[in-house]
glutamate-5-semialdehyde dehydrogenase (Tothia fuscella), 970 residues
Amino acid sequence: MSLTNSSPTEAARSARIASRKLAILSTKDRNDALTAIHAALSEAKDVILKANAQDLALAERSAESGELSQSLVKRLDLGKKGKYEDMLQGILNVRGLEDPIGKVDRRTLLDDGLLLERKSSPIGVLLIIFEARPEVIANIASLAIKSGNAVILKGGKESTESFKAIATVVSKALESTAVPNEAVQLVTTRDAIKPLLQLDQYIDLVIPRGGNELVRSVKVNTQIPVLGHADGLCSTYIRADCPKDMAVRIVLDAKLSYPAACNSLETLLVDEDALKTVLPAVATALLSKGVSLRCDAPSKSALSAALDKHDATLLQDASEQDFNTEFLDLILAIKTVPKGSSPEESLDFAIDHINKHSSHHTDAILTLEESAARHFQDAVDSAGVFWNTSTRMADGQRFGFGTEVGISTNKIHARGPVGLEGLAIYRWRIDGNGQISTEYGTGGKQWKHQSLPVGDSERLAANDEELEVLREFRAQKAKFPAGAS
Amino acid sequence: MSLTNSSPTEAARSARIASRKLAILSTKDRNDALTAIHAALSEAKDVILKANAQDLALAERSAESGELSQSLVKRLDLGKKGKYEDMLQGILNVRGLEDPIGKVDRRTLLDDGLLLERKSSPIGVLLIIFEARPEVIANIASLAIKSGNAVILKGGKESTESFKAIATVVSKALESTAVPNEAVQLVTTRDAIKPLLQLDQYIDLVIPRGGNELVRSVKVNTQIPVLGHADGLCSTYIRADCPKDMAVRIVLDAKLSYPAACNSLETLLVDEDALKTVLPAVATALLSKGVSLRCDAPSKSALSAALDKHDATLLQDASEQDFNTEFLDLILAIKTVPKGSSPEESLDFAIDHINKHSSHHTDAILTLEESAARHFQDAVDSAGVFWNTSTRMADGQRFGFGTEVGISTNKIHARGPVGLEGLAIYRWRIDGNGQISTEYGTGGKQWKHQSLPVGDSERLAANDEELEVLREFRAQKAKFPAGAS
C-alpha cells in the first residue's frame, strides 16, 4: 500500500500498472500477502492505536462543539474491546475464502480442436470511497488483494491519522510479498475525489460505502460504473392467512434488530382481512418497543378499535410521503391492501405498491400460500424477494459469502448482497490450432457448439459422455505441436 | 409495439409499466408473441417494402448530392434478395433459443427450511439506439420480448418510413398476444435521444448499436449503464515458433474477411526472430490482397530485404499513431517485438504493448508453446484472449449464442460477445418458514451454508448426497402449512 501524495492522475495510472501485475499472481501469492498484512498489523497494534487516539481526541473536540455526532466518535474508536482483533480476524477470513479468480464457468467445444472457455478474472482498478470507521481499510485492502484488483482508497477525514498509520504498516508488509505496493493506494487529500471520478481510463468501478448522500454525489459525478445502493426502503407484506406469531416474530426482527441498516423494514403492507386478526398483535409488540406507527386510514381505524386505550393514542397518521421514506429509525409506515374482488387482486395491489415505492433492495411476503409467494417473487422487481423471513436476511455474511463488498440495487452486474464474486469479471478464451472464421458456415465446416461440463458438474459427471469429449480435447492438446498448422 | 408520438418521459414511463407485465409472462407467452410477429411481418412484406422504397428514394437523392454514402444506401435496402427472409428467419431463431429467464444458478441451504436461490430475471427497460439498417428493428424487438425486457427503440432517420411500417405491423400483431403493446416502443422524433438518456428512473440499460461516434456520444450523455464498445483495435502476436502456414492463414482471415468489422485485425506484433522466417510469407500474402503495411523500422528493414522488389516498394513507415488506430480498412500496422534477454521478456513486451494500445476487445497469440499462450491469456486484459485462431472468431453466432446483442468492452456485467444472457440479471429468493436474523450467530443457531446442486449439476448428481438435501427441502415445503410459525 502506498500512502500517496501524488496527483489523482498519477495515483490512478500507477494503480492501473500495478493491477496488471497483481492480476497474474497465483492464489498463494495473494494469500501470502494477506498473511503478511495480518502479521504486520498484529505487531503494530500499539502504534496504530496511538494514531487512532489522535483522531479520537480531535473528534471529541468536534463533538463537544457539536460538529460531529457522538455516534460517529464511537465508530472511530479502534481501541474498543475486541475491535482491533475483529479487524485482524477479518483479514484471515478473507484469506480463507475461495479464490474468485481463474474459475471456468462456461465451456463450449466450437469444433474439433477449438475450445471456448469463459474464465473469471479481476475487474482491474477499484475506487472505494468510505466514511468514518478506520478498520474498514484493512477489510477493503484484503478484498481487493484477494480478488486480484488494484484499489484506490479514500476514507473519511476524521480517520486520517489512523489510516496513515495503517497504510504505513501495510505498505512495509507488502514489500516482502509479490503484491506491488501501488496495488493498494490511500488518498488522503480532501479534494481528490472529484478528479478521481473523472479518470475512467484508469478506474473500472467505484464503490461508495456510506450513506445515501455519499452514494448520490458519487453517481452524479462520474461515468465510471458505480456499485452500491443509495436507499434501502424495504417492505413486508402480511397476507390475511399469515399466522399471527410468525408475523410478530418476523416484523420485530426486520424493524428492530438494527433500525439504521439498509435492510431494515420501513413499510408494512397488510391485507384488509388481517387488520383485525394479525395486525393488532404486531402493532402492540412494536409499540411496546417504542416504534412509532404511521398508519393509513383503514389500518388506523382498525387498530384504534383493537388496541388498548394507551396504545391507541400513540398511533399516527401516515402521509403519502411516509411510503417513500427510508426512516432508518423507530418509525414504520403501515399501508392497507384492499380486499378487492379476489385474492389475486389484493396480491397485485401489494406488488404494484412495492414496485412503485420500494427502493428495489429487499421485500418480503408472509403467507402460507405457495402460489401467492411465487407470484410475489416473480413480480416484485427487487434484489431480494423473500418468503416468510425477515428482510434483515439480505446480508453477505448470512448468505454465506464470508464477506460483503456491499449491497447493490443496480440492475446490471451484481444485485443484492455482493461477495468477492462481484469484484470479478471474465475473459473469453479460445484454444485453437489454426482454425479461421471463413472455413465455417454455408458450404463449409459446421460448428459443433457442444456444451461441456465445468466446475461442479465436471466433478459430478465423472462418467458422462460430455466429459469424455473434454478429456479427448485435453489429450490432443498435450500432443499439440504435431497437430498444428 | 407502439409507434409513440408521446414525450420521451411518457414513453419511458409506459415502457416501465409494461416491463412489469412482460416480466411475469411465461416462456410460451413470449414465444407466442414472436410467432405472431413473424406471421404478421411475412404477410405485410409488400406494404413494408413499399415504405422502404420511400426511404430508399430519399436516400438516393441524398447520395447524389453527396450527403449520404452509397454503402449506407445499400444497407437501407430491405428488398435486396434474401434480406427480408433473413429478417423473418431471425425472429424464429430467437424464438428457438433457450429462455434466459427463470434459471436458478446458485442454491444454498442457509438452515433447515431456509433456502436461498439466485434466479435470473429481466433487467427491465432497455433503450437501444441504432443506425441505418431497417431489419435490425425486428431482431431487437425479438431479443427484448424473448428476454422479458421492455425496449425503447430509436433508429437512424434514414429508415423512418420502414420503421414506421414495421412498427405498425408489429403493434397490430401484439394485440392478439399477452405482450403489452407499450413493451416495445419506437421513437421517431430526432431530438428524443438526449431526454431519454436522462431518464434513469425508468431506463435500466442503454445499448448503442453503431459506430464509434454514436457510442461515445451516448456514454458522455447518460448516467444509465451503457453496454457496447466504442473501438475494436484487435492485435495478433506472432511468436518466433509459429508455423508459417498457420500465421498466413490466420492473419489473412483476421485482416481480410471483413475489414470494417470491430473484430478485425489492426496491429500485428512479430517476434524479432520471426521477421525473416514467418513475416515475409504473411506480408507477401497481405500485399497481394491490397493491404497497406505500416511497418516499424526493424520489420521494414527485414521485409525490404526479404520481399521481391515490387512488394518492397509498397511498404510504408508506421507512425506511433498507427499503433493506436482502428483502421477498419485494408491497412495493417506491424510492430517488432525485440528479442530481449529471454523468451519471457519478449512475451512480456508484447503483452505490455497490447494492454497499452489495444481497445481490450480481442487479441490473439500464435505459438506452439502452451505456457506462452497461457501467460498471454492470463495477462492480456481483453474480452477475448485467443490462441492460434483468428480474432474474427469473437462473435456471438460463432460462440454458439444463436444471436448477438452486441460486443462489450465494459469491465462489468457482460464482456465480449453478448448473447441473450446479457439482457438478464437475477434476484435473490429466500424461502423460509419464520426464521429471523437474530436467532443466528454467537450463542444462537449456526448457519448451514450448504451449497446445493443447480441446473446441469442437479441433473448429473442424481445420486449425490447434496441432491438428497434438496429433495428433502422440497418434500417438507410440500407439507408446508403444518411446518409454519
About this structure: Chain B has two domains: 2-101+121-220, 234-404. The mean pLDDT of chain B is 92. The domain at 234-404 of chain B is CATH 3.40.309.10 (Aldehyde Dehydrogenase; Chain A, domain 2). Chain B touches chain A through 90 residues (CB under 8 Å).
